[in-house]
Amino acid sequence: xxxxxxxRRWKAQCLSKADLSRKGSVDEDVVExxxxxxxxxxxxxxxxxxxxxxxxxxxxNGSEVQKQNCCxxxxxxxxxxxxxxxxxxxxxxxxxxxxxEPLVLHVQCRQLQDAQILAVRSTHGLEVPLTxxxxxxxxxxxxxxxxxxxxxxMEENKKRIERFYNCLQHALEKETISMTSYPKEKIKEKNNxxxxxxxxxxxxxxxxxxxxxxxxxxxxxxxxxxxxxxxxIFPEDY
Amino acid sequence: xxxxxxxRRWKAQCLSKADLSRKGSVDEDVVExxxxxxxxxxxxxxxxxxxxxxxxxxxxNGSEVQKQNCCxxxxxxxxxxxxxxxxxxxxxxxxxxxxxEPLVLHVQCRQLQDAQILAVRSTHGLEVPLTxxxxxxxxxxxxxxxxxxxxxxMEENKKRIERFYNCLQHALEKETISMTSYPKEKIKEKNNxxxxxxxxxxxxxxxxxxxxxxxxxxxxxxxxxxxxxxxxIFPEDY
Lengths: 238, 238
Known about the structure:
SSo0622-like fold, homodimer, 3-stranded antiparallel beta sheet, 5 helices, alpha+beta
């Protein structure tokens, strides 16, 4: 079986499908990153979120609210405004929670080695209960304070996406050069060594340390002879 | 090179080292899970946390507070009491945050295939800013409300650890039986198929869907010819 050809066919099939997300399109802040990955034959993305601030209402009665007993009062991929949150909170009749969720990217890789270049750190966010059975549990001053924090995280997240894009682009370029002069085993060693040393020299500026490969059953097709592996990228800790 | 022997040697070396965590021992609620994994030749754990409620103080001045500009005002692996939180909050002079962190387990695997049995879902927690420059931003009633939520998450997390233990034990037993009657490729297919079908039949009760393998540079030794791979287990979403 030619795995490369099969991966190519699978990629084409997935990318030709309609975007089934609520929004129906890729978030502006990750368009370049998604294009960079999809432009390389060894990768394709299956889902992405640039990062968002959401206000959820978790209902007491499952039939009253949408999607797993939970409805979205507010979603924004941009810094949010206090008044929007205050207005949205008035619609809460259950337990409303404000969340910040950073970048998430699901990437399918042709083979294990292709996942070596992807820099990953653990998730980080904000998750604050605000109402209980529709009753606001905090002051407006606190909401203001909270929104400032969420917006700061959003800004920081955006910077990290840019940094990640630059690191990835650099790693992909380096890999292309390496491919022409090193046998496969050597490339892996070289990449590992490069990241390890980078981290030791300047841990703050290292592109990342974790590499995650997932057999994500939700994103996989039903074919057990799966022609690739799945990578989930989480941004660095704050 | 005999990879199995090398992995065995590496495992023995890691497990013989002193526990360098703040606590210095494995959390009570994951002792059985850690023992189950370490008792199998294809795995060993490098770090674990059963789940905890922590109160952090993030200082404005880096020199005033410990460990990355952040000090721990309270840590508990058991449900926590309001008065303890109130007392601890009085010590805050920066931005205090209450967090719930669910089970985290780092597992080294001998080979890629060994990671197939590990059920993984994304992280989930609670992260609530409570003070700003030492000033309390919420009411005592809210703190009470929040502690109830954190304690509920702690309880739910404990149930999930038990469920994960049972699923893992079941999968390991099944694998041992399969190993004697199927060639390697077949085992992998069989496991995948079993998980996928289970999920479709009863998504609520499925053991898990995600399998994560990490090249965790912090946990790895410096040997580039690494005799294993690393798996990070996160509990299911709430």
